[in-house]
Amino acid sequence: MEILDSLAKTSSLRLDGGSPSSQEKFLRCRLGSQDSGLLALIHVAEVIQIVLTEILPVPAMPECILGICNWRGKMLWLVDLNLFLDYPPLIASEIASVPLMAIVMQIEGQSMGLVVSQVQDIEWHDLSQIQPATASLFAAKTLPFLQGYLPQADAIVLDPAAIARCPMWQLHRG
Predict the structure, then answer these.
(1) Among 128, 100, 104, which residue's Cα sits nearest to residue 43?
(2) With 0-12 CB in 10 A as exposed, 13-18 as middle and 19+ as buried, what is 23?
(3) Distance (Å, rounded) from C-alpha 138 to C-alpha 31?
(4) Dihedral of CA 63/48/92/69: which sign?
């Protein structure tokens, strides 16, 4: 939680207009080499730094599942968010000793770590400004996991509940 607290204290929270009730805090993270994704902060339990050597690979899993690690004495599944959303995989672009960031999401009583190369900021955004994600803008594989995009923030808005309900996880929960 230290990283998330640090971001909240040093963050330049931006207000993008709209009524206070339509404002929500989002965590901005790096996707691929140039894009950014936003996750509603309400679903983020913690942001932890992790190196690939701390991840225990699990055989016969989809390629985007990096494996598991210990989080607060529990098993936490770690997912390469880049690969899951059809970006180049993190492992191909990172060295095993380079720390990555795991955004620990808690959705519907389940915890999952979304691994990214960088967590950038906590920002306020007006929910009414979210534009729909369309097939002309995003890959078909990615669409079900997006709430939309915020043109003024130059970022896609991820749908944490849709990510948590992905059929891929259900097939491999066993």
Answers:
(1) 104
(2) middle
(3) 13
(4) negative
105-111 CB contacts, 8 Å cutoff, 24+ apart? 105/39, 105/43, 105/44, 105/45, 105/160, 105/163, 105/164, 106/43, 106/45, 107/43, 107/160, 107/161, 107/163, 107/164, 108/161, 108/164, 108/165, 110/164, 111/45, 111/71, 111/74, 111/76, 111/77
Rounded CA gap, 97 and 164, in Å?
Answer: 28
Strands (E), the chain: 23-31, 35-40, 44-50, 65-71, 74-80, 100-107, 110-116, 119-126, 146-150, 155-158
**pLDDT, tens digit, 9 for 90 and up, residues 3-37:** 545 444 444 444 444 445 689 999 999 999 899 99
* Residues 157 and 31: beta-carbon distance below 8 Å: no
How deeply is 24 buried, as exposed, middle or buried, from its count of CB atoms within 10 A (0-12, 13-18, 19+)?
A: middle
Cβ-Cβ contacts under 8 Å for 129 (sequence gap 6 or more)? 16, 17, 18, 150, 152
The CA distance from 159 to 166, in Å, is: 11
pTM score: 0.84
